[in-house]
Amino acid sequence: MKKLFQNPVFAVFLTVLLVVGSTLISANLKLTRACERVTDGFYSGVRRQASAGQAIRTLCTDAEQMIIIGDNYGIDTAPLSADTSALKQAVAWNNPDIAAVYAAFDPFYTKLKILENELTHKDLSDRHSEQMAGLSQEIAECRAQIDGSGYNESVSTFLRKNNRFPTRQFAELFGINYPAYFA
User: Fold this and answer.
1) Is there a single domain that holds both residue 136 and residue 181?
2) pLDDT along the chain (183 residues), means of 10
3) What is the residue range of 37's domain?
4) 72, 98: one domain
5) Measuring CA to CA, which residue among 67, 53, 54, 75 is closest to residue 135?
6) Contact call for residues 55 and 142 (beta carbons, < 8 A)
7) R_g (Cα) of the chain, nearest Å
8) Could you tell me if 78 and 145 lie in one domain?
9) Is the distance from CB of 112 to CB of 63 less than 8 angstroms?
């Protein structure tokens, strides 16, 4: 065994193996951190812009308030209630699977807008009319915050930089999931 370590060919091979191994580990950590930074931007905001994640949480609160109003007027709110619960679960603990968050958001938002439309065409009490006006404004602001959050742009920037050979193959080899668009 001692002769093996004294062999210059083995020493070169071992050195190359250590350098390649440490480079792969370092690249893996660096790429994983870059993916996490992009995904974290969904919840914390991108470049000082408002957070899409916080806007979604606000929409869930607005939906719960609209569900209470809708129930008072005999509107079936069970589908929106179920979608609200699913969306709240999807954004719980800052879920890094943004595609799953969008899969929960899309049907939720469609049903939210349907209920909003139904309620604005109902003969509501003054108190509920005033509450709905505020909720409608907040829903529009939240949607604008989501659309203007800069998250999808940060995903595009990341993909332009990292979605090419050999980085993409390296990510697939090590099971690194690239950030997904919120769309």
Assistant:
1) no
2) 76 82 82 92 83 95 98 96 97 92 97 97 95 97 93 94 86 88 93
3) 1-48+152-183
4) yes
5) 67
6) yes
7) 25
8) yes
9) yes
